[in-house]
Amino acid sequence: VSKPHAGKISGNLFRSLSWQLTRLDVLEACSATTLGQLARAYEKVAEEIPLQALRTAVFSILERLKLPRIALSLGGDEILDIALAATAVGKLCPKKDLESSDRHEALHARLDALTTNNAFSQENLLQLINCYPFGMQRNSRVFGTLVAGLSNSISSFSGVHISMLVDGCGKNRISLDPVEEVLKTRLSEDGVLESLSGHECATILCGFSTQGVKDNPLYNALFQRLIAARIHTEGANLFSTLSAGQCAELLWSMAFTAPDILETQDLKIFEQELVGEVHRRLLDADFFSSSAKAKELVASAARGGELGFQDVHVDMMNQYLQWLKLSERPTPQGSCTQIKQFQSALPPLSRDINAKRLAESASIIQDLKSVLQELGVQIDQAVTAGDTGYTLPLLVKGSQVGFDVYDRRHCFEGAVAFKLDGTWKMRMCLMELLGFHILQIGRDQWEDLRGKDTDPQQAKDFLAGLLGKISDLKHVRFNEPQPLLQEEPEAVLPESPGSEADEPVDSVPSNPKKHHGKRKSKGKDPEKEKRLWSLHYSDKKEMWFYYNSVTKEKSWKPPKVDKPWVVKTGSGSHRPYKGLKNYYYNQDTKQVQYEPPILKG
Q1: What are the angstrom distances between the C-alpha of 261 and each of 166, 216, 245, 257, 321?
Q2: Which residues, in sequence order, are CB contacts of 562 under 8 Å at separation 6+?
Q3: What's the rounded Cα separation, in Å, for the pair 441 and 463?
């Protein structure tokens, strides 16, 4: 316990001491305080001694936690030391040696109990949050308990405490939702922002934006403080405290928060400096020499390399470049050459990253495609979206409507559900700027819909509901659906539930999205103007009815149609036209629609 304070400890001495201490009879005689002291000593010498010896020593302590009488005797200080030691081992061990075990479960259980009983100080909770996951074994419930343990004291947090909490949640992909509003309130109070160092301010700004938080006043204030720290307080030292990846996150944050922040001359200068800083770091690392070298540097960063420029930072920088281009924003002054080098080096890397993501979701995408085809939706081959490097795996034939699948790496885990992160939201914004309408489906969400005990119709209804909300699909030709809209040999028309004249035109819902999911059209729709009959929903009768724009007639029955159109009867469960059993089917083109087709006067 005392040796680390006196200087270096040799590997042989540690082996000898730790072997003696792992003996059952020795550990049995150790008090809770001694176990904590041992753990603290192991954590301090973690990088100096053989990994296998360290792993055996720390795991022997974790093994003791499985005994209730030992676990219950440990207080907050001892558990903190043991958690820190477990984390030190976890960071050094290969992933294959970090299998989950009941010893880690015992540590988590004791942590959870102590946090619930307020056994940790504010400083200890922040330490625990920033060293999680303990032994690289994740337990989001325990982490949530740690965050909740701080919620009552956030109103007195200093800037450095806020920075530690935001950074801890970000690193562990835990949503800030439970404490977001309290943090914002604290940051808005007098003197808190002004107390932030440039590094702390950058950490908070990047943390909120990567979580996908939208807040105009907050981002304006954070950028102003960051610029002030850069110009007046820390000078060139600000960037020296950040890795290349953190500089890239800041640059990306400028793109993500662009609609919310005021563009000042100081901000433009700061953006130019950030571009230059990221470029300089990558240039010094020989990033631009070849694609192979760039890939090698990104891979080494994932293993803890000094550059700190990982896959996510490649994606962020690529999104920043595409945002510059698609929003027609001027290139930062003096940065043209640097931007060109980025534009040459990053998209190929982004394509590789995206291809890997799609390969991991290949079975989900194929299953999605098969269900869409059962619904009669024709799918084009996968297409690349502009210069983004993103591939759209499923595009509805003849349209700009596509499907994409996200997974947990694109989310932050909340108390109730997963929340999409800022980079995924930015991806969707770029797709929209390119003219695509992307329907998003979570991998876990789809697997639940296709579970063994789940009715297959649920997945079809879910996709039908998504497609029903897209008004610009009216020109897309569908195959005749089989399971959802069941064909009858003769058209079956519903009986009128009452007088057709008792349904006034002004009962048409003011919000059409509520019932048939159509977006308000910009300008006049020539096809709609030619259509005599249109479909509306009666809130009063809770039924669909048809309205003739010329005669002002209203009818519960589908209007007569000209060949090749015929009226057919379906299941009535096709959202968003739920309850409407009649639909129109074109015998020549196989097109299906609920709105009456254009009819001859």
Answers
A1: 21, 6, 22, 6, 18
A2: 599, 600
A3: 9
Cα–Cα distance list, 472 to 181, 281, 435, 436, 511 (Å): 38, 46, 12, 11, 18
Phi (first) and psi of residue 555, to 5 degrees:
-145, 140
Residue 213: both structure tokens together:
């938080």
Strand 533-538, strand 543-548: pairing: antiparallel
pLDDT of residue 147: 81
> What spatial distance separates the first Cα and last Cα of the chain, rounded to whole Å?
94
Containing H/E element for 108?
A: helix 102-116
pLDDT in tens, 48-101: 767 777 777 787 888 777 778 778 888 888 888 888 888 877 776 655 555 555
Buried b (16+ CB within 10 A) or exposed e, 39-53: bbbbbbbbeebeeeb
| 520 neighbors 512 (Cβ within 8 angstroms) | yes
Tokens for 598?
Answer: 């254009």
- For position 262, what pLDDT does the model report? 76
DSSP letter assigned to residue 505: G
* 597 phi, psi to nearest 5 deg: -70, 170
Query: Position 34: which residue type?
Result: T
What's the chain's average pLDDT?
77
pLDDT tens for each residue of 199-213? 899 999 999 999 998
Whether pLDDT at 540 is above 50: yes
% of the chain beyond a pLDDT of 90: 11
pLDDT score recorded for residue 236: 52
Whether 331 contacts 270, CB under 8 Å: no
State the DSSP string of 116-162: HTT-S-HHHHHHHHHHPSGGG---HHHHHHHHHHHGGGGGG--HHHH
In 257-386, which residue ranges form alpha helices assigned H by DSSP?
265-284, 291-302, 311-326, 336-360, 362-374
Instruction: Please give the backbone phi and psi of residue 406, each rounded to the nearest 5 degrees, phi first.
Output: -110, 160
Q: How far apart, in Å, are the Cα atoms of 531 and each of 215, 461, 528, 560, 563?
A: 44, 28, 5, 13, 16
Q: Are strands 401-406 and 394-396 parallel, antiparallel or unpaired?
A: antiparallel
Q: Which of 573, 365, 593 is nearest to 470 (CA)?
A: 593
Residue found by looking up tokens 């002291």 in the block: 37
Strand pairing category for 437-442 and 401-406:
parallel
CA distance 147 to 137: 17
State yes or no: pLDDT of 482 exceeds 60. no
What is the rounded CA–CA span in Å between residue 143 and residue 151?
13
CA-closest candidate to residue 120, choices 163, 90, 77, 85 = 77
The amino acid present at 69, given as its one-letter code, is: R
